[in-house]
Fold:
Amino acid sequence: MADKIKVGHVHMSGCTGCLVSLADNYGGLLTILDRYADLVYGLTLADVRHIPKMDVALVEGSVCIQDKISVDEIKETREKAAVVVAVGGCACYGNITRFSRGGQPNQPQHESFLPVGDLIKVDVYIPGCAPTPQLIRNVCVMAYLLLKGNKDQQELAKKYLTPLMQLAERGTEACGCDLMYDVINQGLCMGCGSCAAACPVRAITHEYGKPNVNREMCIKCGACYAQCPRSFFNFDVITGFEGILETIDGALK
Amino acid sequence: MELSSEVNMMGTELGNYKLCVSARSTDKEILKKAQDGGIVTQLFAYALEEGIIDGAIVSGPGDEPWRPRPFVATSVEELMKSRGTRYNISPNVSFIKEATRSYGLDRIGIVGTPCQMQAVRKGQLYPAGLRDVPDKIALAIGIFCMENFPYQSIKQLVEDHAAMKLESVKKMEIGKGKFWVYGERGQVVQLPLKVTHKYEQPGCHVCLDYVANLADVSTGSVGSPDGWSTVFVRTKKGDDIWTKAIAAGCFETKSIEQVKPGLELVSKLANEKITKNQKTVEERAKFGVNKALRNPYLSPK
Structure:
């Protein structure tokens, strides 16, 4: 189909969990590849050696700055892709790779891993470890509507993606501490519990209605802050939740 | 796809809804300890028995008197423990992923305040850390909410201001402009809301939703006579379940136009809350000297 968008999966230093999450859309992924997107690049999934031109690059993993190929490839990704999406905690914030001190076989000198946004401009963030199949799916559908949809669909896609673009602008550091700095310290926490539900390592409990972060356990994936309804809450999109969820479901049927 | 652009436009203070009635449960056991019309407990009990939900995240008794704790109720007996309102924070959303994991629910019921309904809907559209949860929300019931209190605030209000022991309190209620504390022995203490205001949770002061606009069904005492609740049925899911529950004889209903004080009061209070909190949001923009406090409605930055 001529009006499909070109999507690539660029694998930096990550555990492939993000790619597995994309695949965990099962039938939905096949529908996406059938109707909306051609996978033009992807480790193990597409037999392509060099990064081609594409509409959307889904980047997984952080960049090891001691690995020249990785550094070259991430720069090339920026040149070749119209939209760069950082998929998952490592690409967005470094996540677990933040704790690397090198010394591991068989490349002990590979010790410094940077979030993608420290080397190139990133357009959209999908935080979380692993990022959820549903958020990856939603972003894929919205990216398609943004590039190929009618005027109303483009408008909706723009509104939907805006907070994820703002998260990309916000920076490359995340931590459970964000809940203190940017929510509780700002007088915004109302104790809903979203952060604790979102945390993949159960580092967050609620004591008397407010989150308590076990900072030793936090892996810096950014899920808690992104999930918090007081990090961002775009009424113009979320109020239409029923219609949007139906649209996404319909698009993948 | 219709999207309402401004939440605080006059006339949208009650959110989208298909139906609004005054109702109460027909189950005497539920009504015995219900805050008002027993709507939440009754609707969850019906949905559980019919297999519409596998369980419901509700707030039940915690470690201290009147301290709520979210828990997953998978039977009507468990639901009964959560009857009534506790007026302090219960982080119900914190169980929304766990409910699908160790409790194994495929169809979740959840009750919460308007902000918690916002959290659920944000979680469905932007599930950063809620893998496989978005499609499993089967019934989200919202409760009207002017503001909430930390547990320590409730303790201070009851023990210091109302001079009662928390463990001897039978019921608390905010209504008719007062905070009411009912004791086990029949004593009643009322506090003017002027006293309670300063103990409110600060995060409530930027909230622009009074009647849980994003719930499937929302309910609260305001607008209906004593012992009855006002009910908004908002979504297709909510409408489907409500219609079946009515057909099954779960509720007595009265037309909202025929009860006092009626929708007018709900609208009035909703507009008061939204106007006051909108002002707070605006004041936060110039809180310091050329320094703003964060506005979550504009950006996560």
